[in-house]
Each structure stands twice: as structure tokens, then as C-alpha cells.
Amino acid sequence: MKPELIVMLTHNDLTVENAYQVFEECQNSKALYFGFKEQPLPIEEMQRIYAKMKACGKRTVLEVVEYTEAEGLEGAKMAATCGCDVLMGTCYSESIHEFCKQHNIDYMPFVGNIVGRPSILQGSIESMVNEAIALKEKGVFGIDLLGYRYDADAEQLISDVVSKTGLPICVAGSIDSYERLQFIKDVQPWAFTIGSAFFENKFGDSIAEQIDKVCDFINSK
């Protein structure tokens, strides 16, 4: 299985204001998964965008860049209100996990110590592998790994978490070159996100063109 591209309608860890328009422009592109962050759009606009995505047959993702249980649970409630398929982000808590199970949302929490926004990932690789394995035992769907946001050896971290946990891993953040895409292709996590790089035209001109280029690259032999 090739890694799935999750298109994030975000720039610098915030949803772009014209996310609905951007999605309309790339709704026929080759990516199956689309999503964005919990800030700053009002919930009514979030619902409108996710409804459009669903109508186009897309799988929907909300990534919540919050680190307390209370804020993470609020993000999970947003995901349920919007009918999202996947909740990424938050620091793991039983309350968030239980809420996701009750609402048929796949839960992919962060591992490691995360600070700031845009996020920076800290901690030892061994500790993050062990944390992911412990979360696997708790029954999470997978892990939201801020691999290229790691302040040490990012590719060693990504490789170890993918190979040693047996979980669906989404490598999220700062995939902005074909060199990094090649690494993702080689290591084969379940998925990876691209947001800011599309808005900075790192892979071409229009968002739709860039999405298709990335999908073609990942799916090529």
C-alpha cells in the first residue's frame, strides 16, 4: 500500500480563510483525504466545508493543535459536529478516546512533547516509540507524528516509529520537497499531510496541480 496524501487546507498550522474556495478548486484532484485545523474558522463554516468534501466522496480529517485534555476534548466535539472521519492531534486522554469511539471517529493522537504553533516536537526517539506502542495497546487507530517538526534526527524518528509500532502513522508537517516525499515513499507510513507547502507552491502552481503531482510521485514505481 502506498502512503495516503492528506491535503490540509492550512498554512502555518491555521486553516486558510478561503478554505471552501480552495477545496472547490481542487475537489476533482487525485487525493482522497482532505482536512484542516480547528482554528480559526467558525464552526458553521467548518461544517459547510466538510459537507462539501463528503459530497465529493472525500474522507475528512480534523487536526487539533491543542495540548490540554479540555481543549482536546473540545476539538473532538468539533470533529463530531462536522461529521469528520479522523481526529488527528491532541495529547492522548481517555476522555477524548472514549468520545471518538462513541462517535465512530478514528483517533490519531500526538506522541512526544509538543510546543508552540507551528508545532515543534521534542523528546527521545525511544520514548516516542514506547509511547506509540502503549497507545496501540489502548486501541487508538494510529499516531499523528510531527516527524519533520522534530528538533533532532527527524528521519530516524519517522523510520523507527513506522517500523517498530505496527500502527497507522501519519507523518504531519513540513513535507515540502521531493527529497522528503521520496523518504516518505521509501518508509511507507500509512499517510502524510501537506498544507503550507501547497500554499507556498513548493510542488508547482495551482493547488490541484500540486496535489496530482504529489499523488503521481507517491504512486509511481
Characterization of the model:
The chain has helices spanning 19-26, 43-55, 69-81, 94-102, 125-138, 154-165, 178-187, 196-199, 207-219, and strands at 4-8, 10-11, 14-15, 33-37, 59-64, 86-91, 106-110, 113-115, 120-122, 143-145, 169-171, 191-194. It is an alpha/beta fold and 221 residues long. The protein has a single domain (4-110, 172-219), classed as TIM Barrel (Alpha-Beta Barrel). The strands form three sheets. Strands 7-6-5-4-1-12-11-10 form an eight-stranded parallel β-sheet. The longest helix has 14 residues, at 125-138. 45% of the residues are buried. The model has no long low-confidence stretch (mean pLDDT 97).
- Strand proportion, as a percent range, falls in 15-25%
Let me know the average pLDDT: 97
End-to-end separation in angstroms reads 12 Å
Question: How many structural domains does the protein architecture include?
Answer: 1
Question: What is the CATH architecture descriptor?
Answer: Alpha-Beta Barrel
Give the strand order, joined by hyphens, for the main sheet.
Answer: 7-6-5-4-1-12-11-10
CATH class category: Alpha Beta
Category from helices, strands and their pairing: alpha/beta
In helices, the fraction of residues equals: 40-55%
Number of H/I helices: 9
Per CATH, the superfamily is Aldolase class I
Quantity of strands, as a count: 12
* Multimeric state: single chain
What is the CATH topology descriptor? TIM Barrel
Largest sheet: 8 strands, parallel
Order of helices and strands: EEEHEHEHEHEEEHEHEHEHH
Outline: globular
Low-confidence stretches: none
Query: What is the radius of gyration computed over CA atoms, rounded to a whole number of angstroms?
Result: 16 Å
